[in-house]
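In the lab's daily routine, each protein ends up as an entry in a very long ledger. A line of letters takes care of the sequence, but it says nothing directly about the fold. The three-dimensional part falls to structure tokens, numbers that each stand for a local backbone shape. The outcome of that step, for a single protein, is printed below.
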Amino acid sequence: MTRIPLTRNPVPEAKAAAIRAAVAGATSLGPDSGASRLAALEDAAAFHEFLGDPQIHAPIYTLPRPLTVDSVRAFIADHVAQRERGTGLLFLTIDEQGRISGYSDLCIWPEWAAGELGGALHPDRQGQRRGVEGARQSFAWMFDTLGLDLICETASLDNHRTAHLLDGLGFSRMGEIVSQRADGTTRPSLVWEITREQWRKKHLLP
């Protein structure tokens, strides 16, 4: 089983510790603190309802299987523990009516200064480049606030929306791996990576 990230450059312990501290101290994703918040155990029922739409959960191999309120609560609890260790984060986006409209799942490898961003938006909120701009801001936040040097992303072979998004944001296609779901089943996935320097050049940052 091939694991990500494919590029693994060990960093000094001081840098890894700084990344773990940044993850443990994060309370929202991106510059707009009102756009997202950390998922809590009491969100399990509402989050399960959001994930119940097959358009949302079917393409995402990192979600628990089977998808129940209890498994979603355990998924949240695991991310609470990951945040304490500085290795993961789970954010919920809440709309104007107080309903969950999206989520972001971050897996962080401090020892390699690398991370992966997963998640989904409600189908009603997709389109009009909203997802592209949200992803761009989230990736920039991962580099700038968490101090990462590399972001690695995966998607199923038929996920053309994500492929188009990552290609457009300057990620490089690195090949194909076999991803394992929570229930042990597998799927082939394409892999993309981008370094901090590549991101800076692509997006004309100083």
